[in-house]
Amino acid sequence: MTERTRKALFDILGPRVCGARVLDLFSGTGALGLEALSRGAEEVIFAEASPRMVKVILENLKRAGFQKKARVLKAQLPRDLKRLPEGPYDLIFITPPYGTGLGQETLVQIKASFLAEGGLIVVEERKQESFSVENTPWELVEIRKYGETALYFLRRKDGARD
Questions:
Q1: 99 alpha-carbon distance from chain centroid
Q2: Where is the signal peptide (predicted)?
Q3: Do residues 36 and 65 lie in contact, with contact meaning Cβ atoms separated by under 8 Å?
């Protein structure tokens, strides 16, 4: 995600970040979770498959002084979703590598109970990729496009259960 897109995302999220419990899936360098912490998130759980990126996230957390508000897990997603700390989370970021289909796969496997009442899931995909919320407990609230990137904002469907 570009810096411009990240800024736009957090401008949209606004005050909902402050005090939030955040799950950052496919964390990469941890930029989204770190931005959430800098804007007052209570806690961020980072999940990333690459050992090298896990190390980068830990270094970035230390540099920013956020180690006590974060947990970093080496996780192969979506397979390891069941290993993640239980929800509910107020914000869930799903930002897989483009062209892998892992965003869609992960979205299908996330339980409704992972998202708090009134919470949001934000999925980043390349805007040319197909995206669907069929057969999920999620409903599409909004789509924002920035260059080649599409951000999908989702919430739990009324009455959705695990």
A1: 17
A2: none
A3: no
- Strands 138-146 and 43-48 come out as unpaired
pLDDT in tens, 89-138: 999 999 999 889 898 899 989 999 999 999 999 999 998 888 888 888 99
Phi, psi of 161 (to 5 degrees): -130, 165
- Show contacts of 132-136: CB within 8 Å, 24+ apart: 132/104, 133/107, 135/108, 136/107, 136/108, 136/110
Torsion, Cα 1 160 117 17, to 10 degrees, reads 0
Which pTM does this prediction carry? 0.95
CB 97 within 8 A of CB 121: no
Closest CA to 1 of 144, 158, 159, 162: 144
Where do the structural domains in the chain lie, given as residue ranges? 3-139
- Cα–Cα distance between 37 and 75 in angstroms, integer? 21
